[in-house]
Amino acid sequence: ESGTNTKFKLSPAHWLWKLPPMLLILLISMLICCSASPLEDSSSFVATADGSFFYPDDDNQVGLTLSTFGQYERQLQNVADTVLRQLMISGDVIAYDIGANFGTWSIPMSRTLAGRGTVYAFEVQRRIIQYLKLNRLANEAANMQIVHAALSNISGVMLVSDVTGGYGGQTLSMLQEAGEAALRYKVLRTTLDLLL
Question: Residues 119, 77: contact at Cβ < 8 Å?
Fold first, then answer.
């Protein structure tokens, strides 16, 4: 009969692959990655012009820089802010923070893009993800999506370990080799091409 509405019942496998790539990656990363426990280590807090940040006491790079100087890479962030504002003239913007750490770039970008864009903050270490979530909440960064995944030149699953100390200088290969094999956990690895 012409003009009749037909309801379809789709199996999860059918509709799952029709999701936008970014949403699919978010879903898969939640399913395969171990959920991290709440903050159990000693933490510090600093309020800066760029936002309010919790960070692990043992961070001798980004956290130390924030607590000492009240900023992190401010000159570079000023350039990024200018570029984002120019892009917003054309419409909504999507920004990626790859290796987001505890949000020293994501938080300022989310402020710049408030109401006009989204920031996807990619972080591998589950310990640092907890700080990133806390900082998103502390800064009311509703337009910031946290993705527990690694961006790489290949897709798949990788085993990594959390490290202590200088969180801002870790590479994927360093995280794969760090710690005891028994303490490693699975993290989704994807390519930027899959997101665009």
Answer: no
CA distance 139 to 132: 10
Q: Which residue has the higher pLDDT, 39 or 2?
A: 39
Kind and range of the H or E run holding 154: none
Closest C-alpha to 118, from 130, 106, 129, 126: 106
Q: How far is CA 81 from the centre of its chain?
A: 18
User: How does pLDDT run across 96-126, given as a tens digit for each residue?
Assistant: 999 999 999 999 999 999 999 999 999 998 8
Cα atoms in the 13 Å half-sphere on the side-chain side of 69: 9
Contact 15, 6 (CB under 8 A): no
Helix, strand, coil content of the chain in percent (nearest 5) = 40, 20, 40
> Can you give the length of the chain in residues?
196
CA atoms in the 13 A half-sphere facing the CB of 64: 8
Structure token pair of residue 124: 């591998």
Question: Quick one: which of 154, 21, 167 has its CA closest to 99?
Answer: 167
pLDDT, tens digit, 9 for 90 and up, residues 13-48: 545 555 566 555 655 555 544 444 445 568 888 889
